[in-house]
Description:
The chain is an alpha+beta fold. It is built from two helices and eight strands. A four-stranded antiparallel beta sheet has the order 1-2-3-4. Strand 7 and strand 8 form a beta hairpin. The chain is globular.
Amino acid sequence: METLDGQEPGINHLLENLYLDNNRELQQDFGPKVHEGPIRRRNMTRPTFSSRDGSMRKIEANLIANLSSHSEAVTSLAVSPDHLFFVSSSDDKTVKVWDTARLERNVTSKPRHTYGQHHARVKCVCILEGVHCFASAADDGGLHVVRVHVTQSGALPKYNKLQVIREHRVENVGEYITCMTHYNTG
Protein backbone atom coordinates (compact mmCIF):
# COMPACT_ATOMS: atom_id res chain seq x y z
CA MET A 1 0.00 0.00 0.00
CA GLU A 2 1.35 3.42 -0.91
CA THR A 3 0.35 6.93 0.04
CA LEU A 4 -0.38 9.65 -2.50
CA ASP A 5 3.22 10.83 -2.40
CA GLY A 6 4.50 7.32 -3.23
CA GLN A 7 5.88 6.64 0.25
CA GLU A 8 5.07 3.48 2.19
CA PRO A 9 3.16 4.49 5.32
CA GLY A 10 4.24 3.35 8.75
CA ILE A 11 2.04 1.19 10.95
CA ASN A 12 1.34 4.15 13.26
CA HIS A 13 0.12 6.22 10.33
CA LEU A 14 -2.19 3.41 9.19
CA LEU A 15 -3.57 2.92 12.68
CA GLU A 16 -4.09 6.65 13.10
CA ASN A 17 -6.01 6.89 9.80
CA LEU A 18 -8.06 3.81 10.67
CA TYR A 19 -8.89 5.29 14.08
CA LEU A 20 -9.87 8.66 12.59
CA ASP A 21 -12.04 7.05 9.90
CA ASN A 22 -13.77 4.80 12.43
CA ASN A 23 -14.12 7.62 14.93
CA ARG A 24 -16.02 9.79 12.44
CA GLU A 25 -18.32 6.87 11.73
CA LEU A 26 -18.72 6.04 15.41
CA GLN A 27 -19.46 9.64 16.36
CA GLN A 28 -22.65 9.51 14.32
CA ASP A 29 -23.71 6.21 15.94
CA PHE A 30 -22.87 7.10 19.51
CA GLY A 31 -24.23 10.64 19.40
CA PRO A 32 -22.77 13.99 20.35
CA LYS A 33 -20.25 14.53 23.11
CA VAL A 34 -21.85 15.52 26.40
CA HIS A 35 -20.73 17.77 29.23
CA GLU A 36 -18.93 15.83 31.94
CA GLY A 37 -19.66 16.45 35.60
CA PRO A 38 -22.82 16.96 37.60
CA ILE A 39 -25.45 19.46 36.58
CA ARG A 40 -26.11 22.06 39.28
CA ARG A 41 -29.68 21.99 40.46
CA ARG A 42 -31.32 24.62 42.65
CA ASN A 43 -33.00 24.05 46.02
CA MET A 44 -32.25 20.37 46.21
CA THR A 45 -31.88 20.03 50.00
CA ARG A 46 -33.07 16.84 51.66
CA PRO A 47 -33.56 15.99 55.32
CA THR A 48 -30.75 14.06 57.00
CA PHE A 49 -31.30 10.92 59.03
CA SER A 50 -30.17 10.31 62.60
CA SER A 51 -28.11 7.32 63.62
CA ARG A 52 -30.00 4.17 64.69
CA ASP A 53 -27.41 3.14 67.27
CA GLY A 54 -28.11 6.16 69.48
CA SER A 55 -24.67 7.68 69.10
CA MET A 56 -24.27 11.38 68.39
CA ARG A 57 -22.33 10.88 65.16
CA LYS A 58 -23.90 12.49 62.13
CA ILE A 59 -24.59 10.32 59.10
CA GLU A 60 -23.72 12.03 55.82
CA ALA A 61 -26.29 10.27 53.63
CA ASN A 62 -29.59 11.23 52.11
CA LEU A 63 -32.15 8.76 50.85
CA ILE A 64 -33.24 10.00 47.44
CA ALA A 65 -35.46 7.12 46.37
CA ASN A 66 -36.15 3.45 46.97
CA LEU A 67 -35.74 1.78 43.60
CA SER A 68 -37.52 -1.56 43.37
CA SER A 69 -38.16 -2.05 39.67
CA HIS A 70 -35.82 -5.02 39.11
CA SER A 71 -37.31 -8.44 39.93
CA GLU A 72 -33.93 -10.04 40.75
CA ALA A 73 -30.56 -8.96 42.15
CA VAL A 74 -28.98 -5.75 40.86
CA THR A 75 -25.51 -6.59 39.55
CA SER A 76 -24.05 -3.24 38.48
CA LEU A 77 -24.60 0.54 38.34
CA ALA A 78 -23.11 3.23 36.09
CA VAL A 79 -23.66 7.01 35.89
CA SER A 80 -23.79 9.08 32.69
CA PRO A 81 -20.95 11.61 32.22
CA ASP A 82 -23.27 14.58 32.86
CA HIS A 83 -25.18 12.83 35.68
CA LEU A 84 -28.52 13.16 33.83
CA PHE A 85 -29.22 9.46 34.30
CA PHE A 86 -27.76 6.24 35.60
CA VAL A 87 -28.24 2.64 34.55
CA SER A 88 -28.63 -0.53 36.59
CA SER A 89 -28.17 -4.10 35.40
CA SER A 90 -29.79 -7.14 36.94
CA ASP A 91 -30.08 -10.90 36.98
CA ASP A 92 -33.62 -10.34 35.66
CA LYS A 93 -32.02 -9.92 32.16
CA THR A 94 -32.67 -6.17 32.00
CA VAL A 95 -30.90 -2.84 32.17
CA LYS A 96 -32.93 0.07 33.59
CA VAL A 97 -32.35 3.76 32.78
CA TRP A 98 -33.09 6.04 35.76
CA ASP A 99 -33.60 9.82 35.49
CA THR A 100 -31.70 11.53 38.33
CA ALA A 101 -33.66 14.82 38.10
CA ARG A 102 -37.02 13.06 38.49
CA LEU A 103 -35.69 10.97 41.37
CA GLU A 104 -34.28 14.03 43.18
CA ARG A 105 -37.55 15.93 42.79
CA ASN A 106 -39.65 12.94 43.90
CA VAL A 107 -41.51 13.07 40.58
CA THR A 108 -41.24 9.30 40.15
CA SER A 109 -39.22 6.34 41.38
CA LYS A 110 -39.77 4.35 38.18
CA PRO A 111 -37.16 3.93 35.44
CA ARG A 112 -37.46 5.94 32.22
CA HIS A 113 -36.56 2.91 30.08
CA THR A 114 -36.05 -0.82 30.41
CA TYR A 115 -33.67 -2.51 27.99
CA GLY A 116 -34.66 -6.16 27.74
CA GLN A 117 -32.82 -7.47 24.67
CA HIS A 118 -30.42 -9.74 26.60
CA HIS A 119 -31.27 -13.44 26.72
CA ALA A 120 -29.38 -14.11 29.96
CA ARG A 121 -28.61 -12.49 33.32
CA VAL A 122 -26.92 -9.10 32.84
CA LYS A 123 -23.75 -9.15 34.95
CA CYS A 124 -22.24 -5.71 34.39
CA VAL A 125 -22.85 -2.36 32.79
CA CYS A 126 -20.66 0.67 32.05
CA ILE A 127 -21.16 4.09 30.50
CA LEU A 128 -19.10 5.00 27.44
CA GLU A 129 -17.03 8.03 28.26
CA GLY A 130 -18.29 11.34 26.93
CA VAL A 131 -21.54 10.10 25.32
CA HIS A 132 -25.00 8.92 26.34
CA CYS A 133 -24.35 5.24 25.67
CA PHE A 134 -23.97 2.19 27.88
CA ALA A 135 -22.44 -1.23 27.35
CA SER A 136 -24.03 -4.21 29.08
CA ALA A 137 -22.72 -7.77 29.30
CA ALA A 138 -24.71 -10.91 30.07
CA ASP A 139 -23.59 -14.32 31.31
CA ASP A 140 -24.28 -15.92 27.91
CA GLY A 141 -21.31 -13.96 26.49
CA GLY A 142 -23.44 -11.22 24.90
CA LEU A 143 -22.26 -7.60 24.91
CA HIS A 144 -24.65 -4.85 23.82
CA VAL A 145 -23.86 -1.18 23.28
CA VAL A 146 -26.97 1.00 23.56
CA ARG A 147 -27.52 4.71 22.99
CA VAL A 148 -29.83 6.62 25.33
CA HIS A 149 -31.46 9.43 23.36
CA VAL A 150 -31.97 12.23 25.90
CA THR A 151 -32.30 15.98 25.49
CA GLN A 152 -32.13 18.62 28.20
CA SER A 153 -34.70 21.31 27.48
CA GLY A 154 -36.23 22.88 30.54
CA ALA A 155 -36.25 21.57 34.09
CA LEU A 156 -36.61 17.88 33.24
CA PRO A 157 -34.84 15.98 30.45
CA LYS A 158 -36.80 14.24 27.70
CA TYR A 159 -36.06 10.59 26.93
CA ASN A 160 -36.65 9.04 23.53
CA LYS A 161 -36.26 5.37 22.55
CA LEU A 162 -33.14 3.35 23.25
CA GLN A 163 -31.07 2.44 20.20
CA VAL A 164 -28.86 -0.65 19.94
CA ILE A 165 -25.56 0.50 18.42
CA ARG A 166 -23.51 -2.71 18.51
CA GLU A 167 -23.87 -6.33 19.58
CA HIS A 168 -20.90 -8.62 20.22
CA ARG A 169 -20.42 -12.09 21.68
CA VAL A 170 -17.51 -13.64 23.58
CA GLU A 171 -16.22 -16.42 21.34
CA ASN A 172 -15.57 -19.15 23.92
CA VAL A 173 -18.71 -20.92 25.15
CA GLY A 174 -19.24 -20.52 28.90
CA GLU A 175 -17.12 -17.37 29.18
CA TYR A 176 -18.55 -13.91 29.77
CA ILE A 177 -17.56 -10.40 30.81
CA THR A 178 -17.77 -9.71 34.56
CA CYS A 179 -16.50 -6.13 34.75
CA MET A 180 -16.13 -3.26 32.25
CA THR A 181 -14.74 0.27 32.20
CA HIS A 182 -14.54 2.52 29.16
CA TYR A 183 -11.79 5.09 28.69
CA ASN A 184 -11.84 7.43 25.74
CA THR A 185 -8.45 7.37 24.06
CA GLY A 186 -9.20 10.04 21.47
